[in-house]
Design a protein that fits this description.
Layout: H1 3-18, H2 20-34, H3 40-71, H4 73-98, H5 113-121, H6 125-136, H7 140-157, H8 162-184, H9 189-223
């Protein structure tokens, strides 16, 4: 396991968190946590439970998928032999999804308005349930980053638990940060939220371009056998 792999998993999670569709669910989570303004302990507990719910969901999904794929001998041998060749096209597709060129307009929301209204009337334990449901509410960006980004990376590194955990924490990080802001510095909440929405488009643009470029590099070097470095 390398720090590059861990950083990549965290970056995938963070890109997931600030992409438009997952960002909407995180905003809903922030609204749920923020209803308890003045109760610092409940706010922090809700933020941590939401993070735990999201993280455990991705860990469970990642571990099941990785274990299932690696358990099939033919699949395992295929991935060991062709993983580098697969990563190139996958990275290009992820970049296109981040740039909004493909996969827009589709989403699956397991925590609709009724669930959120019921959660608002419940206790802090609902924060963990919302984390689970929001993690399972895939849209093209989050599905692409998880299934086509994290899972191949986890398989390549042989990590069934660590990388999905890091990814899950990355997806919940904005909510955790806003929970601390609500608890300790509520006056900065509006400024921080506005800054996040402004930065999101540029981060997604830069990330999309980088994914495409890295995908092209992997494709040229591992599929076509071209050497792009000086000998």
């Amino acid at each position: 396991m390398t720090w590059l792999a861990i950083g990549s998993a965290f970056s995938l999670g963070l890109f997931t968190a600030i992409s438009p569709c997952p960002l909407a669910t995180n905003i809903a989570a922030i609204s749920f946590i923020g209803r308890q303004v003045g109760n610092r302990r409940s706010i922090l507990a809700s933020g941590l439970l939401y993070t735990l719910g999201r993280t455990l969901t991705y860990v469970a999904l990642g571990a099941l998928l990785a274990a299932g794929l690696l358990a099939v001998a033919e699949v395992s041998r295929f991935l060991q032999k062709y993983m580098n060749e697969i990563l190139g096209p996958v990275m290009i597709l992820l970049g296109m999804v981040l740039l909004g060129w493909i996969g827009s307009g589709l989403s699956m929301n397991l925590a609709g308005q009724r669930v959120q209204e019921r959660a608002a009337k419940g206790g802090i334990l609902w924060a963990g349930l919302l984390g689970i449901l929001f993690a399972l509410s895939f849209c093209p960006v989050s599905a692409g980053l998880f299934f086509a980004g994290l899972i191949p990376l986890a398989l390549k590194e042989g990590s069934r638990l660590l990388l999905p955990t890091v990814y899950g924490v990355g997806t919940a990080l904005p909510v955790l940060v806003f929970a601390f802001l609500i608890a300790f510095s509520a006056e900065y909440l509006g400024k921080a939220f506005n800054r996040l929405t402004q930065v999101e488009k540029w981060v997604r643009l830069v990330a999309g371009v980088l994914f495409v470029l890295v995908g092209v590099y992997y494709s040229l070097t591992h599929i076509y056998g071209l050497s792009l470095t000086a000998n």
